[in-house]
Amino acid sequence: MSTKSQLFFLDLGLSNMQHGVSQGRIMTCDGDGKGLKAILEGVGNQPDGLGITEDHMIVIPPGATFTPKQLHLVPKHGKVYWCDREGMRVFRANLDGSDIEVLVTTGTSDADRLDQRNWCVGIAVDHVRRFMYWTQKGPSKGNKGRLFRAGLDMPRGEDSTARSDIKLLLDHLPEPIDLDLDSEENALYLTDRGDPPFGNTVSKISLEQDVVQKTILIRKLHEAIGLALDVKNRMMYFADLNGSLYKSKMDGSDEVTLLSEIGDLTGVACLSVA
């Protein structure tokens, strides 16, 4: 049985600067693009990752993470996962911000930070199979982006700087950004901001039987970034920095532009309601 979808997405607010600081906001609309409104203004300087909870409060204070990007909430287990771009790390914490853990560290020095191949951006978590997936974007449109996988449990005697269970799944991606997971089909979905024909796309990455197969589903976006799956209804929603919000079936068919020129869009989240 199909359900209704409520979309939430972020506007960086680059076109609404005050005293040199962009005025980000959280927007919402129905799954068909109707009922557009801002539900929270002035959420900070260039917000990026988005998850759905009942409250708005700071749980990870300034200084605890460098440049947080996409995040993934696992309410059933009381956890939030996120990538830290220039911080070159993957984090996990309790939903109230306690018990912050560094799961992956890709660099530690200023020289490491200059290498954008170390920048962690998108994340997806499979609690059933006990895996996490993340992107390291590489230089802008540089075809040096990568997709990795590691376990949710740290190998015994190891730490975030040298994990033996990290596996490189895909290399030479244009500029991979956000991820989402269809756990039923064991498949990842990925936005890529790099140059066409392989960039500015949404792709499906099949992980069945540990064989990684990437298929481009959507092309010709304008700086593709935010992504959210509605697995119940077999739909996906995605956004680009040019200010457009789109939907399509999860196989990429029936693509529709829901909204256009509504800001500088980044993260997207979807809530299915009865």
What does it look like?
The radius of gyration is 17 Å and the shape is globular. A 4-stranded antiparallel sheet has the order 5-4-1-22, with no helix packed on it. It has a 4-stranded antiparallel sheet with strand order 6-7-8-9, with no helix packed on it. A 4-stranded antiparallel sheet has the order 10-11-12-13, with no helix packed on it. The chain has one helix at residues 110-114, and strands at residues 4-11, 17-18, 21-22, 25-30, 37-41, 68-74, 79-84, 89-94, 101-105, 120-126, 131-136, 145-151, 167-173, 176-182, 187-192, 201-206, 213-218, 224-230, 235-240, 244-249, 256-259, 265-273. The protein is built from 1 helix and 22 strands. It is mainly beta.
Could you give a quick summary of the protein structure above?
The protein is mainly β.
List key phrases describing it:
274 residues, mainly beta, Neuraminidase, four-stranded antiparallel β-sheet, 1 helix, 22 strands, 2% helix, 6-blade_b-propeller_TolB-like
Overall pLDDT: 92
Strand content: over 45%
What is the fold named in CATH at topology level of the largest domain? Neuraminidase
Q: How many beta-strand elements?
A: 22
Please write the string of helix (H) and strand (E) elements.
EEEEEEEEEHEEEEEEEEEEEEE
Highest-level CATH class of the largest domain: Mainly Beta
User: What is the count of structural domains?
Assistant: 2
- Taking pLDDT < 50 over at least 5 consecutive residues as the criterion, the unreliable ranges are none
For the record, the CATH architecture of the largest domain stands as 6 Propeller
**Fourth-level CATH superfamily of the largest domain:** TolB, C-terminal domain
Radius of gyration: 17 Å
Instruction: Estimate percent helicity.
Output: under 10%
Distance from N terminus to C terminus (CA atoms, Å) equals: 9 Å
Count of DSSP-assigned helices: 1
Main sheet makeup: 4 strands, antiparallel
Query: What is the topology, as strand order, of the major beta sheet?
Result: 5-4-1-22
Pairing-aware structural class of the strands and helices?
mainly beta
* Global morphology: globular
